[in-house]
Design goal:
Largest sheet of chain B: none
Distance between the termini of chain A: 24 Å
Radius of gyration of chain B: 20 Å
Radius of gyration of chain A: 20 Å
Shape of chain A: globular
Mean pLDDT of chain B: 88
Order of helices and strands of chain B: HHHHHHHHHHHHHHH
Number of helices of chain A: 11
Largest interface: A-B, 29 and 26 residues
Low-confidence stretches of chain B: none
Number of domains of chain A: 1
Structural class of chain A: mainly alpha
Number of strands of chain B: 0
Oligomer: heterodimer
Number of helices of chain B: 15
Strand content of chain B: under 5%
Order of helices and strands of chain A: HHHHHHHHHHH
Largest sheet of chain A: none
Shape of chain B: globular
Low-confidence stretches of chain A: none
Structural class of chain B: mainly alpha
Strand content of chain A: under 5%
Distance between the termini of chain B: 23 Å
Mean pLDDT of chain A: 84
Chain lengths: 236, 307
């Protein structure tokens, strides 16, 4: 498995470096925002939150090479013939993506820690960072088995469909759900934070985080089973 | 052959000394500089800014041992074999999962114990009224933080259990290595203990009793963590156990679930007395771990995965 992991790091070296450099850039940007803008208004927390999310998003966009490079029947036949087999190949993909996300989380975590004394203890987005990490993990858990089974192109369409579906669900909630806590308050963002921290939502959020990690592990097992069938779809 | 063995021993000793210098120095210097600037102990200051610095220092300072490990390997051209970064669970699943559960359990067992010691004239449910959605959500969230943001505990474990302990185990018998490793680990905490970490500054025998107690705590934990690391060939279980010890310990459980009166009673007992009480079960775990570790029949996995 580690040999395959090394291979992916070599194959996707530029992608990995781009992701890390971009994360360092976003960290510098967040620190600048915290240093030069008074983080008094809760609404201002959105700026670093969006910057953090973009770092995770870019990290997920730079991992395409590790799938497209293996979409070849001859190569896959060779990988299946190795002692480690297809299981190690798939696990290496999952581990590579996890390592990349963890690197982004590490830099963001250090940035968040440094921002605490800069903002006199007002600013910390650690719960949001964990949420973003788990969200990316869940999206990858849904997306990767389809990419393994049907190829990276079709897998990307399915990922787009899933994201669209999630946005659709959120929009239905916005149109028909109970948003009185938002519209009736004088400070909507603070009201949103209070709603997110309320018992039921906080519990759902915490369970979601644990669920996303479990989903990633289960997704790896599913992908291992789908790999052989997926090879049939690849071009020679 | 004897010369090769002697040379290897000298080389290990030299690497260990370099590692210890690189892991001790940054924290000693940082604590001194902060004390000179603010004229207050870092972890017992009333200055709001110093309190925040203490938090940042606690997070980032924990990464000093791993940085020292990395630098030592590079400076001495040791390479990265036996790096204890293996994540293969198959064949070692018991030693991955059971110690983590034991650490969780240690915290929970103390909830009824503390109630019995301080508040047994009231009912258990009255002293733990906060088992609601918010507290449980906070506890679950904290579990996620421990297992996902494991960077600081990793920063310590890769240095102490991933580098120092294997070197000590090559230089001396197992019990001596475990005890000495724990003492070194405890002494590494001395600059923080002197500035009020863990025990504050208002206790009898400050700071010597605090340093001694820290060494004792580190010895018992070192036995447990070394056993887990050597059995799995990986520092990741020890990392998670360390994270649980720091962030999901009995003090966090009391904050989340206990009544204010029980918390007040516990705080009034004093940091030294409370540390002694909550070290009893980890001490038992540590002694059992040392006995298991010393058993000749049981296999150990090297840091490169070989048995």
């Amino acid at each position: 498995m580690y040999a395959f992991l090394y291979r992916y790091f070599r194959l996707n070296l530029y992608g990995f470096l781009v992701a890390i450099m971009f994360t360092v850039l976003t960290s510098a940007l967040v620190i600048s925002v915290c240093a030069f803008i008074e983080m008094d208004d809760g609404f201002l927390y959105l700026i670093p939150a969006i910057i953090y999310y973009v770092a995770f998003l870019l990290s997920s966009l730079t991992t395409g090479m590790i799938f497209s490079a293996d979409e070849n029947k001859t190569a896959c036949a060779f990988f299946l013939s190795t002692p480690a087999g297809g299981k190690a190949l798939i696990r290496a993909k999952y581990l590579y993506i996890l390592i990349q996300y963890l690197m982004v989380l590490f830099f963001c975590y250090c940035t968040d820690t440094i921002c605490i004394p800069i903002t006199d203890g007002k600013f910390t987005l650690l719960p949001v960072l964990i949420l973003f990490f788990c969200l990316r993990l869940l999206l990858s858990a849904i997306n990767i088995p389809f990419m393994i089974r049907f190829g990276s192109d079709r897998g990307t369409y399915i990922k787009s469909f899933v994201v669209t579906l999630l946005i659709f669900v959120v929009m239905i909630y916005i149109l028909f759900g109970d948003l009185s806590w938002f519209f009736d308050s004088k400070d909507p963002f603070t009201a949103f934070l209070a709603w997110a921290r309320s018992g039921k939502i906080a519990l759902i959020r915490s369970i979601f985080q644990i669920f996303s990690v479990i989903a990633y592990i289960v997704s790896c097992r599913i992908s291992v089973r789908l790999f052989r069938k997926g090879v049939e779809n690849y071009e020679k | 052959m004897k010369n090769d063995h002697e040379n290897e021993k000298k080389q290990n000793l030299l690497r260990l000394l370099i590692y210890l210098i690189l892991s001790f120095l940054p924290d000693i210097i940082s604590v001194l500089v902060i004390w000179l600037i603010f004229k207050e102990p870092l972890f017992a200051s009333k200055n709001y800014r110093v309190t925040q610095l203490a938090y940042v220092f606690g997070i980032l300072g924990m990464m000093a041992p791993s940085t020292a490990c990395l630098l030592t390997r590079l400076l001495t051209k040791e390479g990265f074999g036996n790096n204890y970064l293996d994540i293969r669970i198959k064949g070692n699943a018991g030693y991955w999962i059971i110690p983590i559960l034991v650490k969780f359990l240690e915290g929970w067992v103390y909830l009824p114990v503390l109630w019995f010691l301080f508040m047994r004239h009231t009912s258990l449910s009255a002293d733990y009224p906060n088992f609601n959605a918010v507290s449980i959500a906070s506890y679950l969230h904290q579990i996620c933080v421990v297992f996902l943001c494991f960077f600081s505990p990793f920063g310590e474990e890769w240095g102490w259990r991933g580098y120092m302990m294997p070197k000590l185990l090559k230089l001396m018998p197992k019990p001596a290595a475990v005890i000495l490793g724990g003492i070194i680990w405890g002494l590494w905490h001395a600059p923080f203990t002197i500035t009020g970490h863990n025990f504050g500054i208002n206790y009898p025998g400050f700071p010597y009793l605090g340093i001694l107690l820290m060494c004792l705590v580190c010895v018992v934990n070192n036995a447990f963590l070394t056993l887990v690391t050597e059995k799995t060939g990986s520092i990741f279980p020890a990392t998670f156990i360390h994270g649980i010890n720091n962030s999901l310990s009995v003090s966090i459980l009391l904050t989340l679930f206990a009544s204010s009166s029980l918390r007040y009673k516990v705080e009034s007992a004093g940091t030294i007395k409370m540390t002694l009480i909550i070290t009893i079960i980890p001490a038992i775990t540590g002694i059992v771990s040392l006995i298991l570790f010393m058993k000749k029949r049981v296999k150990c996995v090297n840091g490169d995965g070989s048995v």
